């Protein structure tokens, strides 16, 4: 099951219980995989065509009438084409609208930079009243969508597309908005990921263990509000912190963690792994993750390289 299928399943289940729930899409029913909802609840499903700005405005109007609208479209189009509408119509008014942004990060690899969503976390987390959730697999997506529906106000949920699923959680997890999940514990370094990169961090941790490095893996599924307590523990209990994201290193998960560490007064080194403030080239998602150092082996190499540099610096001192 993909994350999009999981999200739709939760929406269908919720709509059985709540007649106020609506789903609106922008001509991307295949990617968002919302056809089951449209079939089951045709009177509460709208396809507005390629008109993301209008879609958000319609959702705002429905919310003011007591409905619970969920808008679904490509992350790049929602966060940038409909940015003003999300900010002014939803966030400023603190309306109860949920945004499920598909094809996030590098998921739309072959579509090129126009469809890569590598700025969306930075944009959305800068909006007051907005909650930003980035689940890592289908199971966590189900939990995230359910939690978002029960949380008042606007929520942005960032997921992949129709591609293969990446399983991080084989069993039920304790999902709470604003509380990171420890996927794997360790005392040497901490790898903090969100979304697609959590699975790669877990692979990296296994590889690092073979090199004698115990890596803690944190699934920071809620980028806003950030779990400052989990970051504080990582900063004071491990030697170095790494953030890993399929997003520009400016303003995303790495920025959120850096801000928290700075305010905590932490002197623990932090390295941000992600898209290095550039527009990604065209290619498959897997190829782009490899190119930008976001696969498990590349992450492990970055950690080992950083530790060697830190060790050499201590020797020189």
Question: What does it look like?
Answer:
The protein is about 45% helix and about 20% strand. The protein has helices spanning about 5-15, 30, 35-40, 50-65, 75-80, 85-90, 120-125, 140-150, 195-210, 230-235, 255-265, 285-290, 295-315; strands spanning about 20-25, 45, 70-75, 100, 130-135, 155-160, 180-185, 190-195, 215-220, 220-225, 240-250, 270-275. The termini are far apart. The protein has 13 helices and twelve strands. The protein folds into two domains: about 5-160, Rossmann fold; about 180-315, Rossmann fold.
Can you give me a brief rundown of this structure?
Helices cover 43% and strands 19% of the residues. The protein has 317 residues and is α/β, with parallel strands linked by helices. The C terminus is likely disordered.
Helices and strands in order:
Elements: H1 3-17, E1 21-25, H2 29-32, H3 35-40, E2 45-47, H4 52-64, E3 68-74, H5 75-81, H6 83-91, E4 98-102, H7 120-125, E5 131-133, H8 138-149, E6 155-158, E7 181-184, E8 189-193, H9 197-210, E9 215-219, E10 222-224, H10 228-237, E11 240-248, H11 253-264, E12 270-275, H12 285-291, H13 296-316
Parallel strand pairs: 1-2, 1-3, 3-4, 4-6, 5-6, 8-9, 8-11, 11-12
Antiparallel strand pairs: 5-10, 7-9
Helix pairs in contact: 1-8, 4-6, 9-13, 10-11
